[in-house]
Design brief:
By secondary structure, this protein is of the alpha/beta class. The protein is 31% helix and 17% strand. InterPro entries: Glc/Gal-6P_isomerase (IPR006148), Glucosamine6P_isomerase (IPR004547), Glucosamine6P_isomerase_CS (IPR018321), NagB/RpiA_transferase-like (IPR037171).
């Protein structure tokens, strides 16, 4: 486990993009588990810029979306695959045949999830995954629970998570969907290069809880990353503001 403290969100995004590009350049056909949400938008902007500058070639890269809202079609502007096209896929030279995402409108979502998990296995597993931390400690849509599921699955979203995401659905009469599809904790823990990005003062208590408590708790899913063999936290100074200097030095 490693903590890298950056000045601000802009620097977090640049550092994260540079790490992704380094991995892609070393392994052009790497498997990238794409995150949605506000946290990675800056990173995607930097990745597009680096591609336009000729610093990286995405033509062989393979991708799997990390999660998706159940019931949303790909063309729905609230769907995560729409987000990926808007911020990344449509601006680089990735082969769309190598882009995979959950079929959120499948008749049998459980069967779809099982196949999606198998597709990740058949691809050789994930080389890169990036996540933020939800206000309740969730990663992807692995919500706090008495147990966590290992592979891609359907999840009923906590009200706290729906509230956290409601600003993205302010133009939608039905509001945030009640259910989502999420990659599971086994898939996250087996990812070869795992990154957590956090920015802003509101993330500081979440990181303090994670690093000052040795417990692995399914009610705080991000705590499972304490057991990950290769995880880096790319955070800004505000997010790091409640961490003791001893902790920052230990994980430097």
């Amino acid at each position: 486990m490693k903590i890298i403290v950056c000045k601000d969100y802009e620097e977090v995004s640049k550092v994260m993009a540079e790490k992704v590009v380094s991995i892609v350049n070393q392994k052009p056909d790497c498997v990238f588990c794409l995150p949605a949400g506000n946290s990675p938008i800056g990173m995607y902007k930097e990745l597009v810029k680096m591609y336009q500058e000729g610093k990286v070639d995405f033509s062989q890269m393979r991708t799997f979306d990390m999660d998706e809202y159940a019931g949303l079609k790909p063309e729905d502007c609230h769907s995560f695959i729409y987000f990926m096209h808007q911020h990344f896929l449509d601006h680089v030279n990735i082969d769309l045949k190598n882009v995979r995402y959950p079929d959120a409108c499948a008749e049998d979502l459980d069967a779809m999830c099982k196949q999606y998990a198998q597709d990740i296995i058949d691809a050789g597993g994930l080389d890169i995954a990036i996540t933020g931390i939800g206000d309740d400690g969730h990663i992807a849509f692995n919500e706090p629970n008495s147990y966590l599921l290992p592979r891609c699955h359907v999840v009923k979203l906590d009200e706290a998570t729906r509230k956290q995401n409601e600003s993205a659905f302010k133009d939608c009469l039905t509001g945030v969907p009640e259910y989502a599809i999420s990659t599971g904790m086994e898939e996250h823990m087996k990812t070869r290069n795992y990154f957590v990005v956090c920015s802003g003062k509101h993330k500081a208590p979440l990181l303090k809880k994670l690093f000052e408590n040795d417990h692995i708790d399914p009610m705080y899913p991000v705590s499972f990353l304490r057991m990950h063999p290769n995880v880096e936290f790319i955070i800004d100074e505000q997010a790091a503001s409640e961490l003791d200097e001893e902790i920052l030095n230990y994980y430097k």
